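Lab notes, practical 5.
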Amino acid sequence: MKLLKLLAATTAVAALLASPAFAQTRIALVVKSLGNGFFDAANKGAQEAAAELGDVEVIYTGPTAATAEAQIEVVNALIAQQVDAIAISANDPDALVPALQRAMERGIKVISWDSGVAPEGRQLHLNPSDTALIGETIIKLAADYLPEGGDVAILSAASTATNQNAWIEAAKAVLPEKFPNINLVATVYGDDDSVKSTDEAKGLIASYPDLKAIIAPTTVGVVAAAQVVTDQNLIGKINVTGLALPSEFKQFIDNGASQAVALWNPIDLGYSAVMLANALVEGEEAAPGATLSIGRVGEVTLDDTNSAAMAAPFQFDASNIEEFSQIY
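Output from the prediction step:
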């Protein structure tokens, strides 16, 4: 009888270990900060990918403040939880490297997405779009509504944000040849904080009386700048443009504070990040030239730095903002 009970108990334990709860892959989607609509939309896509894969749990997490130090604490907690993969949008490309290296040493797969980590701190990076194309797009969004040119300024996120800095450099590179009448007078940083971004926008307007456009390649900064232009009765005098979530920005297209903005689909971005992280967990190799599936979005091919671009930005204006504001 004791032997039968022992066999039964052993069988029960084995069954539990083989159950989906124990076999499930856990992927942490780490964002720059919680409470950001862009990242909430990315999480929607991440959860969609998890449901499609069937045996994946996505842990949506991040700090309350968009700092590298706060993200490091989150990463350390995930290492302690022994997750299978970390997919991170980084607040700093270098500061996170030691923590993410510790994760990889413990067998955790690490990718960055949206805002990258230095190559030694991750296995691959997924850009939302091609850096050069984003840079040109954000300048073109302003130039298209300034036929005679004029002064423009950039309101960015953190001064250490990998993606923001790369886009700004790409934007500067196309100015002389393609937009010679556009004069970039300043670049300031709002740290993806609405209060600081508001203050920086006010400072630009006060410092540059001939300012014609504020370009904010950040969903937090672009809303803050458009609100300042609205509050200061500068609609029609200063055009706010950049990268924006349609659902958060529709009111400023409607009231004329902005003529047009652009963005990739953050739902697809979160979805694709989880698909790539899961592929690494399943044994796919991240190596230059490798082509990896990102499910319904298609596939990506890694470059010499194990980076790839998901898709081109899409423009939102009065003709389509209503439709897309219902989606994300």
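Observations recorded by the TA: Residues 2-18 form the longest helix (17 residues). Residues 1-22 have pLDDT under 50 and may be disordered.
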